[in-house]
Fold this protein.
Amino acid sequence: MNAEMQKAILLAENIKDFISFINKNLDNNIFYMDRDKLNQIKLIAEDFKFHILADELKRINRFVWDPKYTHYLVDRFLKGLRIIDEFTERNYNSLFMVTGRLYTLKNLSTSFSEMNHYKKAAPS
């Protein structure tokens, strides 16, 4: 298994963990975050179908590295993640506990974008 496949699987697991983190905090309010704002994050994640993207990332990278489809899925995930990140920055006082998870997701997903950028820039 090559490193890109492992990164894709790790990203998929972290996306699922992020969704479960939001759902657990909505149910139990462990960190006393604003439920309306958490619900907004949950709705954005559902709108961009984060759970489907995570399942697909894990499925396609289980046995064979498919860079084209992986980059497509990561780019779709990044569109939603940017919106959630901006929303969290504007509401930092209420959602500061989410920033750690977002930081991890951003770093994992931008590594794919950088790889894609370098491959496009390299001469054929």
Q: What stands out?
A: The chain has one domain: 3-121. Residues 3-121 form one domain.
